[in-house]
Amino acid sequence: MEETTKRELVLHVNGERRSIVARQAETLLFVLRDGLGLTGAKPGCLNGDCGACTVLVDGTPIKSCMMLAIETVGKEITTIEGLDDAPIQHAFVRHFSFQCGYCTPGFIMNAHALIERHPNADEAAIQEWLESNICRCTSYQEIEAAVKEVLEAKKAAPTDP
Amino acid sequence: MAVGKSIIRKEAWDKVTGRAKYTNDFKEQGMLHAVLVTSPYAHARILSLDARRALAAPGVHAVVTGEGLPLTGEDMRDRPPIAVDKVRYYGEVVAVVVADTLAQAEQAARLVRVVYEPLPAVGSPSEALKEGAPLLHEHLDRYEKNKTTHPEPGTNVAHRTKIRKGNIEQGFAESDVIVETSVSFAPSDHIAMETRCATAEIWPDGTIHISASSQSPFMIKKLLHTYFGEETGKIIVHTPLVGGAYGGKAPVQLELLAYLASKAVGGRKVSVWNSREHDMITSPVHIGLEATVKIGATKEGLFKAMEILFLFDGGAYSDKAIDVSRAAAVDCTGPYHVENVFCDSLCVYTNRPYATPFRSFGHCEQAFAVERAIDELARTLQLDPWEVRRKNAILPGHTTPTQVRLTKSNVGNMPACLDRLRELMRWDEWQRVELDAYTVRAKGISGGWKTSTIDTDASSGVILTFNSDGSVNVISGVVEIGTGTKTVLAQIVAERLKMDVDDVHVKMDIDTQTTPEHWKTVASRGTFMAGRAALAAADDAIRQLKDIAACVLRASPDDLEVGFGRVFLRDDPAIFLPIKDIAYGYKFPNGNAIGGQVIGRGHYILRHLTPLDPETGAGKPGPEWGVCAEGVEIEFNRRDYTYRIVKAYAVIDAGKVLNPKAALGQAMGAMSMGLSFASREGFLFDKEQRVLNPQLRTYRPIRFGEHPEYIVEFVETPQIDAPYGARGIGEHGLIGMPAALANALSLAAGVPLNELPLVPELIWRKQKGDSYGSV
């Protein structure tokens, strides 16, 4: 029964074309993890409540447990493995913005998208974006410090031509 | 050199790049998946279980049920790993379905037909103790238990700890005022972001390979032996990084199911991974409590007597709840000197998810009860609540409730913590202020203390191996659950060997076959015990390095020093050997060689710990008492009963801060968890004791933006025995938060708030009177 519902999908992940055979009902999270070995996105609730599975789809942070893999065909997917030395990663390390590290990939992807899209984000915007992820180890103050530092640095830096 | 610096945690870059791997990230071709079938009733007889349709479903290999399995439990063996005959809580496992894929196992799990006959459910400890309450365990007298567990057959009492110190009647007789306060809260959950996961595989030679997201890999090994008679030498437990634990991953549960599932499919590898819903209610939870505290004091506020009754909601099985109830009793008064103490702490069975350690191990629970009572006492006597705490603060020379005499080393400096808190909070300026017609700001405080009630023979070992470049590998059984302990161990080793911490490498994963045992990664004992073992291992390595160098340099080992990558003459450091030239032995120019790889070994076992006297509680339960003083400032809206936590303060006696930023992170993270628990967490039960909110959408931990400003400082009163004097600090931040928040809100709302969680509805109900009902 199950086999008949499988099909081949071609996904664009972290700048590469990846082909995979998966059930049509499979979520993006499970295809990334089990099919492509990209285990950076974490399952935390499979209900869109915790944000541990956040990845970027065409630059928008998406809870990958809430999206079918088949919906992402033709879109650009970026996972934590596709981030290359992003300022937010350095800031997280500097500010001790994680402990167990399980929620970290989701938080970083969300924060990275916020910084890219809204370099002038104010307090309210930062909260609106980051309240979608749960961290159980830190006090959030450490994460706040990291995000604000990167936003400040971006404001201070000369804009790209 | 390395100690006292904010060294970046060793696995930091793995964690910010997605390379860090947790148990469920390791996938293998051919690995089978298990899904749990759980009970929809909190108390029911199982009349029949029919797995035929599930077994016939695509991909299914086995359905494991509970017949013939041994009972399990660490203090008392009262829990079948899979329920038989009867279920005792909502969400209890009744069968385990094993299939090729997770999706197939999930589909087949729905096909297992179980017929139940519901029984009346027991909903709270006080209900469970009523005459005629349904008994959860009819055969409490038949269970195997250890010597320190005292169940009361014919009742729902799994264990009772008695503390009898001084003369309670006399204490109350000498009191000018006696204040009695009752508090309560329902069970809640740890909510580690990584749900629990275990895999098991049994090889043809009988070797059992377990991988587990666990704080207790070595205990898994021991318990598989105890329960199933497996040879300990043939059990190998692997624990990679753990995605949050907070006590919830100390018990052993899924590992047993994975083992049974693997056994049912001829030893193939099987993974059992909790859904969030199962992780919240099927796996053990944070304990609930009903407590009554009676304090007798002089009119100046000096404590004369404390009588405390703790009724802990242990849930359906005793697991570690017995130990939690004992730990709260051991430190029942909080960090105050009380000559006359009478405490009964009961671990009570109810038809609720079973309880297990939660960060602070009974102490935030104890503190909530006693610190609310202290505030009520201060209010009655019209004294400053800070003054009352300061006046009664515990000091060296006093004794604890279990009659351990305190010294300058084994207890932190409570007055110093309180004094600094008062300054930081600007306590004297105001405690309650009305900003406008609706907005009130208020402050609340709490003291806290904790010793670590762990097994009297708990030990920890460390191995140091040298690499040919002179760098060192640290191998310790402490699990990296997020506390950064392994990085702190690297700092300790670097400090002792006087080397660059970058040259100290840490093995993060645990493999019980090659990693020396560390009892359990619990009780804030990682740095203390593994730290002592690391120091011993470093000293052992230093001895070996000196022996080899002594031979080559033709000098007595006593004249040599190790440091800065060299072994050198103390008298003339220009005469030296690089460690890299002797780390694998030394080769003379003619080819002759001496020595071999330097391997440092060290271990540590806590000394002089004793079980408690069953009648008086006298005994030494832990090595030292860390203390703290904490506060919360809130802004309360009198119109809609909502509030905002503005600031949270903690002053903790850390003994010695080994890694300042990591220590701050531990304190602030614990405070956040305490505030989240106190302000918004708790299971909601219906009348049949079914949990109504086993989801993160309906059980909502604190989120970004709801966090207050955190202000944390450390006092440093060294504990002489500990590495560089460091005391445990992973839990203290949590201890005072629920009480401080409740004290602040009680002051703001003008009504005693003695229940958790402190949601606006509760405050509204208390102000309007309980008869007002709920919405």
From TrEMBL, chain A:
Record has Phosphoprotein as a keyword: no
Keyword annotations of the record: 2Fe-2S, Iron, Iron-sulfur, Metal-binding, Oxidoreductase
Signal peptide from the UniProt entry: none
Gene Ontology molecular function terms on file: 2 iron, 2 sulfur cluster binding; metal ion binding; oxidoreductase activity
Domain of life: Bacteria
Entry annotated with the keyword Nucleotidyltransferase: no
UniProt domain 2Fe-2S ferredoxin-type: residue ranges: 7-83
InterPro entries given in the database record: 2Fe-2S-bd, 2Fe-2S-bd_dom_sf, 2Fe-2S_ferredoxin-like_sf, 2Fe-2S_ferredoxin-type, 2Fe2S_fd_BS, Beta-grasp_dom_sf, Diverse_Oxidoreductases
Pathway given in the UniProt record: Alkaloid degradation; nicotine degradation
Name of the molecule in the record: (2Fe-2S)-binding protein
Organism: Geobacillus proteiniphilus
Automatic annotation (TrEMBL), chain B:
Aldehyde oxidase/xanthine dehydrogenase a/b hammerhead domain residues: 17-120
SMART domains named in the record: Ald_Xan_dh_C
Designated name of the protein: Xanthine dehydrogenase, molybdenum binding subunit
Entry keyword set: Molybdenum, Oxidoreductase
A GO MF label: iron ion binding
InterPro entries hit by this protein: Ald_Oxase/Xan_DH_a/b (IPR000674), Ald_Oxase/Xan_DH_a/b_sf (IPR036856), Ald_Oxase/xanthine_DH-like (IPR016208), AldOxase/xan_DH_MoCoBD1 (IPR008274), AldOxase/xan_DH_MoCoBD2 (IPR046867), AldOxase/xan_DH_Mopterin-bd_sf (IPR037165)
Keyword Protease set for record: no
Record field: transmembrane: none
Claim: Repressor is one of the keywords in the record: no
Pfam families, per database record: Ald_Xan_dh_C, MoCoBD_1, MoCoBD_2
